[in-house]
Amino acid sequence: METNYNNELFTRWLNDELSPEELREFEKSPKFSLYQKIAQKSSELNTPEFNQDRVFGKIKSQLATQQKPTKVKKLLPKFIFSAAASVVVLLGLFFFLNRTTSYSTSYGEQLAITLPDNSEVILNTNSTLSYTTQNWKENRVLNLNGEAYFKVKKGSDFIVESTIGTVSVLGTQFNLNTKDTTFEIKCFEGKVKVKTANHNRILTQGKAFRQLKDTTAEDFNIKEALPSWTQGESTFNSAPLSQVIIALEHQYNIKINTSKIDSSQKFTGSFTHNNLNVALQTVFVPLRINPSQVDTKNIVLVKQ
Questions:
Q1: pLDDT of residue 37
Q2: Containing domain of residue 75, as a range?
Q3: 67-87: b or e for each residue (b if 16 or more CB lie within 10 Å)?
Q4: What is the pTM of this model?
């Protein structure tokens, strides 16, 4: 209702039909400077023929530069200004339909998200998920930087993109980890199609795939029904220690110096999300590595 009211005042203002009281009220509107810009730019046209693309471009440019309004001298017929006002509405609709929705978590945080089709996502610590809302039912494409668990409703292709690879499904449950140089996908239900620059896979329930930094690939099986990180701990199955260290850093907001150990060795096990000291001991003691805490944010690893 407010938008219609402002547009009506705008049209009457262009036609010099506002009363003194209405004029004072209209000039107090937060959009008044934008209306002045529209009228000023419209007055620069050399022909009364309306060109929607031209006016659209001028208004879009003005929104980006946010220049100060200048005095307006009206030179064109009144219908030109009404057309320009319509373009303002179209511009707002364009940006509304093409907006990007984004969610982020910080260190140690998790976030539950419901997508427009009622698919569900749990975003793990220090991760970002984004997607465009326009035509969502036919274009279910998301971008993930970090780790997330997806419970996908049946429908059109559901695609998750990352810098390393792409995962596409129709209706399934899966976990995708793209943190730093990691690319790991676990299928908990249904089928998952995985594609990277070097590898292609079709995963079924209980199957998993991992691509390492040097692009070598590993296939392995999983037994858990849900990602363990959704229940307060992170679990690894013959994972490179470097991947475990990245998970520790993201969970506890710390930096771990690995210059004195072999971070390519494999680790099978888990660590808690609730106690840093317990987590460090759980991961490194079995590997005969001593985690030495320099301060609250820095850990140095030394081989025993």
A1: 61
A2: 2-97
A3: eeeeebeeebeeebbeebbeb
A4: 0.65
